[in-house]
Amino acid sequence: MRSRSNSDSSVNSDSSADARNAALRARTPLTAHNTAFLQNLLERLPLHAGQLAALLDLVKRGYIIRVAKTVLAFIKAHRWQIFWSLTTLVGLVLIINPVALMGFGALGPIAGSAAALWQAAIGNVAAGSLFAVLQSIGMVHFATIPLVGLAVAGGGAVALAKVAGVLQPASRWVQTTSRTAWQWLRTRSS
């Protein structure tokens, strides 16, 4: 009997939470910052009254919009750093050679790998299928994928350092040192 009263009270608390959510939604007017999308999203989420109130308060005060604008301003101000960082990251992923990691080797699927399991599951491999394309890449470009990754990662890292201003002091040092070395060589040869 006692457990039944507990379950009845949890049902009552759920219905009272729904009633509080509905009342809170009715009291919270839409503002310029509070878009229909956010309102619809918040209404669909299974939130308790306190959580809903906190989120609606953030929307109402414009904090969510301010955070989005701040993130976009950061991206706009640092777009080249972000671009070259992502380029370097792509190069590092290529160095690892994800095709080989899946098990597509230079001589075919590597025994016990995901590629071997996939081939066992599909049986006869159709020409032009995703498996066939990945196997072709794995066999033909087994060594070139990491080399391309090395070039992309290296180029991205150098460009990122240049954009971030790290290379400018190093560039001045190289110029000064090479000019001094060249002058020293010219004086010795005359």
TrEMBL record:
Under Gene3D superfamilies, the record lists: 6.10.110.10
Q: Which terms in the GO cellular component ontology are assigned?
A: membrane
Which membrane topology term applies here?
A: Multi-pass membrane protein
Task: From the Swiss-Prot or TrEMBL record, state where the protein is found.
Answer: Membrane
Keyword Transmembrane assigned to the entry: answer is yes
Q: Which UniProt keywords apply?
A: Membrane, Transmembrane, Transmembrane helix
- Superkingdom in the source lineage: Eukaryota
InterPro entries per UniProt: IFI6/IFI27-like (IPR009311), IFI6/IFI27-like_sf (IPR038213)
- Transmembrane parts of this sequence: 82-104, 110-133, 140-161
Family note:
Belongs to the IFI6/IFI27 family.
Record's protein name: Uncharacterized protein
The species this protein was found in: Mycena metata
